[in-house]
Amino acid sequence: MNTFSNGTKVKVARRTVDTHTRVPAYIQGKIGIIERLCGSFRNPENLAYGRDGLPKQLLYRVRFLQTDVWEGYAGPLGDTIDVEIYNHWLSMEDRY
Q1: What predicted TM-score, i.e. pTM, was given to this entire model?
Q2: Residue 61: helix, strand or coil by DSSP?
Q3: CATH code: domain of residue 86
Q4: Mind listing the pLDDT tens digit for each residue in 48-89?
């Protein structure tokens, strides 16, 4: 399991899935910065189907620039959006 420190640049996986996911489509494939580790929790993608959700997954709050998320974003350049994303959706940005 990857673990990330605050300030680490990460990329969110882009996946086509037919099942429950906690990662909004608009954030998939985007690059952000780890803002904080929220803790370790049972995987809601498995819990949604009656499974035990184990092993637990690390949940991170990842910060994205609005201009990187929304094409044509007209707000201030420093505006951000924070999204909580489970570890198995994240990888180090420098791998891409």
Answers
A1: 0.89
A2: strand
A3: 2.30.30.50
A4: 888 898 999 999 999 999 999 999 999 999 999 999 999 999
